[in-house]
Structure formats: C-alpha cells, structure tokens
Amino acid sequence: VGAVGHLFSLATEKKGFDYPIFDIDWKPLHLIQKGSFVKDYINAIEMLGKKATEFTLACDFDIEGELIGWNALRFLCKQKDGNRMKFSTLTKPDLVDAYENKAPSIDWGQALAGETRHKLDWFYGINLSRALTKSVKTAGSFKIMSIGRVQGPALKLLVEKEKEIMAFVPQPYWQLQMLAEIHKQKVEAWHIKDKFFDKGEAEKIFEKVKKEKSALVKEVKKSQHEQPPPFPFDLTTLQTESYAQFGINPKETLEHAQQLYLAGLISYPRTSSQQLDPKLGFKNILTHLSKQKEFGELCEKLLKQGKLLPRNGPKTDPAHPAIYPTGTIPEELKPRTRKVYELIVRRFLATFGQAAVRESINVSLLVKEEIFVASGKRTIEPGWHVYYGPFVKYEEKELPAMKEGEKVVVEKINKLEDQTKPPKRFTPSSIIKELEKRNLGTKATRAEIVDTLSERGYVTGQQLQATKFGLETATVLGKYSPRIMDENLTRHFEKEMEGIRQKKTTEENVLSEAKLFLIKILKKFKEQEKKIGEELLGAVRETQEIESTIGLCPVCKKGNLKILLNRKTRKKFIGCEKYPDCQTTYPLPQGVLVKPSEDKCTVCTSAMVLIIRKGKKPQTVCINPECVSKKSEYNKPERVGVECPQCKEGKIVLKRGFYGEFLACDKYPKCKHTESIKK
Fold this sequence. Notes:
alpha+beta; Rossmann fold; Topoisomerase I, domain 2; Topoisomerase I, domain 3; 6 domains; 4-stranded antiparallel sheet; 19 helices
C-alpha cells in the first residue's frame, strides 16, 4: 500500500506567537493541513496493519523515505521494526531482487537522522518565525514572518551579493579592435593588453595605429588539449545543467526527474553520487536504450567499442548510484519532462565516450610595434561530444590559415569604450551549487529553500535579487542575532545529523544542543524585541504595499487595483483603492498565495496575478473573469448533461471559476465533483 509522501507532521498545541517552544508531537497530516488527502491512506494502512503478520518498508532509500516508513510502522501498524527493501530503480527486476534480499530491520541511522532533521527544522522555524512576527506586532504592525535553519544563511548569501552589487562603482575602460582580412576571410583581433583603464594610453596607441592598412603575422601558436567525458549526473549537476540548457529551474527539474523515476525510466534522482557501478549492467541498459529510435545508433556505437567504463566523478552517496536511465521505453511524456529525460540519457551515454580533442590558436598581428591577437577554437576529435549531441556548448571559432611573415589587410581599427560590470546575481541554479559547496541544506531541499525565500518576499526574479524586505531582515538579524545567519552553525548541525546516520551520536544529544542554543539567542532577541520590530517596520509596510498592488485600475484610471480582504467574509478579492468612487472588483481564489505579476494578459491585456499553491507550480492567471482565455473551446462540451459519476443524482453542468470554465455536478454543495475541460 502506498504512503503518498509524509503521512505525519510535527505540531504543537500551543498556538499564538509565544516563544521559545519545544513541545511537539507527530500528528496525522490531515489534522494539521486543511484539505490534505492522506486520511484515506492512513485508514488503509491502519486497517491492513491490524491483519498483517509481516511488515516490509519499501519507501525510497534515504532519510526521508526511512522516516515516512518508520512513522507508518510505529503509529499506524503499532510495530517497533520491520523488514527493509533497498533499491534505486522501480523496474521489476530491481524490485524483485530487493524483496528477495530485504534486510530484517529498517535503517535506524537514516530513520533517526530523518526525525532529528524534522525536529531541528521545526525548532528553528517555529521559534524564529514567532520571534520575528511578534517583534513586528510589538512595533504596531502585523506580518507573518519566517526564517529557517538553512534559510537564514541562504538569505545572507543573497543579501551579501546584493550589497556587493549596490556598492559596485563601474570603471570606464577602452579596448582596441582590429577588423582585418586574409585569403578573403574576415579576422577580428584585439590589442594584447585587452582593457585599458588609462584613457590617455588607449588614445595614444589608437592614434598611432588607426590609419594603418596592413599588419604582419608575427607568431602563430597552436595548442591541443583533451576534454575528458563528463561525470554522470548527481541531483545538483542535473539541476544546474537543466537550467543551463532549458531554463528549467531546479525545483521543476526535480519534479520531472521524480516523474521519470516513478515511471521506471531512470534511477532514484535524489542522489549525491557521480559514480556508476558495473554491477548495474551497462550492456543490458544500452541494449534496451538502443530500441529507442533517437538513441539507437549511439548505443550501437558504444556497444561495439568493447569495454564499457564510465568516467566516474569524485562525489559518492552511501545509498544510491549516480542518475542513469533504466532502458525502459517511455510512453508519452510531456515536452519538458522529455527534455530532462533526453538530457539524462545523453549524459549517461557521454560518460562512456572517448575524450574529445580541442585546438586553441592564437595569432599575433604586428601593427606599428603594437600587437593585436586573433583567437580561435575548434574541435579536432569530437569523442564524447557525439553522444551529448545538442547539449555540447563549446564555441567553434575557426581562423583562416596564417603563416608567420604573412601580411594581413587591415580594414579598420576601432577604439571602443565600455564599463566594468557588477558581480552577477545568483540564479536558482548557481545558488543551489553554492549551498552544496558550503554544505548547507540537503540535495533534496536546496531548491525548496530558494523557492521559500522567493515566496516570502525576501528575493525576487530569476536573477535572485534581494528585496528591500530581504535586505532589512538580514541586516536586522545580523545586528541583533548574528548566529541565526551563521552558516558555520548550520553546517555544524548538518555534520551532527550525518553523525546520527552513521551512529556516532544520538538524536537526544543533537536536539539538546539545539535547544540550549535557541534558548540563549531567543532570550537576547526578546530583550531587543521592540527595537527589532521598529527597524523592520518600514520594510514590512513597503513590502505589504508592493505585494498588494496589482496596477492601474482600467475603469477609473485614477486608483490602483489592490489585493484586499473583505472583513465580513474574510475572503480576498481585487478592488480599486478609490472605492467608493470606483467600485471595480475582481474575484480571487481562496486558500492560495496571490502576488502581483508584471505580465499583462496576451488575450485581453488585463493585469495578471501569480497564484502559488503549496506543492504545485506557480500559475500566472488573468484577473478578468470575462477573458476569452478562460472560455472552453466548445460552446457545450460533450459531458454536459450526463449523470454525475460520483453522486449518481446530479447532472454535469458548465461552470466558470477564476481559472476558467470547468464541469461540475449541479448538486453542489452536496456533491463536490468537478472535471477539467480538455482544450
């Protein structure tokens, strides 16, 4: 029976904003999260557990999977232990082998490390969030604020980068560019000094060479170097490569990889390993992959080369190998999921390829004793590039053949002016790489951390720009409670949890240390609570203003449309700030996070909002309920008028909601059956 992820979550009976608080228990998820669908699964496991005589845990083999299974065993099946299956793919042979060779006990190191991580994150999250929220409340405003054990150091990284950019003073520089021709082919060369920060020096040389019509080939330097095949994918490198190739952010990449894993098409994606063991059966995988048209020739080529040795990387994982395709032929995949699948397959093939050989060439051109350099690069032997195909991103810039002593026709010499650029902001891809480098968070949670910072208004955009709210929060915490933002402390607890997994320390020791630390810093925080709140207040109010403003009202053209709360019904809606003079309103979905979007509807040009629902991809939706984009393709979908399949009493009717038209039972609210309309 399936567990559909975590069935239990940590919770406390103590509501409000008092802190510190450490009294927590595991509770069924549906009692904590409204609308959770786990109740039926909990009931099913509980019922079957009463009748069963043997219990086998077959969740993902990592600390989260172990914890999910352990909670089901102890709370629902009333068992102290159970058998354990270990596998890295959901293919039939692997599952049969895992069942036949199951361990007699669960992995207690993983289970206890998983529970410790959840409790540690809860202790940090609830206490620091309550402290921040209460400080703002004490100062006379209200905003639910939050910061977590890993979010703090991650925010600090982004804020430090933003401060670097803000403090950056651009410097002007000049470059000298030569446009030339030889053997009827164009050549571009740059002065050997590259950037001149002294304008006078650049102008002096420019005046010296600008009228010259020929240059002498002084030296031709060629060098070749081998490019070894890439390492197999671990999760982080898959996420960064997917972002580089397709612009798919790390969180979405993991979602696609998880779908591929559940379909039995790839191995377990949440791995830190860059190593593939020959025991996986490379020949068998390639033979199966060869049946897929787009990979057939490439697989045949590898199978003919004899010994199959992948170029393994340095990173390892105690539980799983690097990500690899199983060879199972996929059924229909969504376009973006297919892209991630092809990337994984081609990376797997490329690891078995030969080294590629690249050539670099630098030609020195002499003009009036000034040297200009033309550079080129090309691939001599493609090697593994053949297998990686469209994902090879190396510049091919060939130069015409030139010999020392030859003359080159100079068409023009330009003096170009530019400025130095500020440091680049982190992207969703580069920040998870940086977090991994600093050992902050886990392979499975890093992308989620970045998303959380964005959802809470600390950063904005694909180039993760710290907002004023993020800057102020990090500055205030750094001033009054710097240890919250200290990555060394976060890294220390990561090592401690690894120690639990390896049975070198205990859950009790780690949690006791964390409690003592939190009590100490929260005591200091409470002493400065009002000051902290007052310093945060300006940023909070500005953020609330930004987060509630949609744009200019299209009706009165005087006020702004704002996200408002109806005090009577407690429902959110969009209304004009010039009410009662302007009574323009638009409905909003409830129980979701709504943020303004800079986009305009391409169909009706109305404003759009970003709808964020937990566990789902954010959706940009037009606010205009009459927009054509919300209407179904057909005036009357075929299902209209048929019997409701759920209650068997009502009829299916066409309805319209915030997201557009849909089908529903006419017996609502007695029957809540709905269907989407296929367009």
